[in-house]
Amino acid sequence: MKQSVRGLPQRILDALFFPIRALFVPEERSFGLTSLRDERFEIVAMHAKGKVLDIGCGKDNLFIKNWCDHPESVGIDVYAYGGVERVHQDMTHLPYADNTFDTVTLIAVGGHIPENVRVKEFVEIARVLKPGGNLLMTEGEPVTQTVGHLWRHFSYAVIGKKDMDSERGMEEDEQYCMPFNEIMGYLNAPPLKFTKQVKFMWGLNNLYVAQKSN
């Protein structure tokens, strides 16, 4: 893990001012507060190991560049955001061999997987994971996640900026958040087995961990 984990004083400050962070500090650190994006990255990095594939890596491939130590870790996205090195439009056929990665991450992108391909995509994720490897997935709670996305669309538009969803566009069968029961179905589909849930951001965001059986 490249970036250091926040110290206790910073974690307390971030927790106390979470509503301010949710409204005004989504992506870049501001007002001495950790961005929501960086907190998600930190939580995921604490559970990641070895060679990492970050699916839906987004602009500048930041999780891989800033948080992953393994030199062969890679970020991949369906859209050519600036700084994305690997663009691949069909995530149901990943361009990697079986059992390639120790960790696969889906950071705040689960709902953006089109509903009609979700089963195939999770099968493909399991294929490229090594036995004993982990799938790490973050998803917020449905109501707050939807409100947060809508607020971001509005607030970014006010300052003449596009958020990533607006830049890429949303397909009809995408959602702002994948429902919990659906997540559990994918993470408990052999060879994957759900092992852990970690709540953060006042319990409004979640890290889900599933392991591929040996």
TrEMBL record:
SUPFAM superfamilies for this protein: S-adenosyl-L-methionine-dependent methyltransferases
The taxonomic lineage of its organism, from the top, reads:
Bacteria, Candidatus Methylomirabilota, Candidatus Methylomirabilia, Candidatus Methylomirabilales, Candidatus Methylomirabilaceae
The species this protein belongs to is Candidatus Methylomirabilis limnetica
The record's annotation in InterPro entries points to: Methyltransf_11, SAM-dependent_MTases_sf
What are the GO MF terms of this UniProt record? S-adenosylmethionine-dependent methyltransferase activity
Give residue ranges for domain Methyltransferase type: 53-136
Question: What top-level branch of life does the organism fall under?
Answer: Bacteria
Q: Which Pfam families match?
A: Methyltransf_11
| Name of the protein | Methyltransferase type 11 domain-containing protein
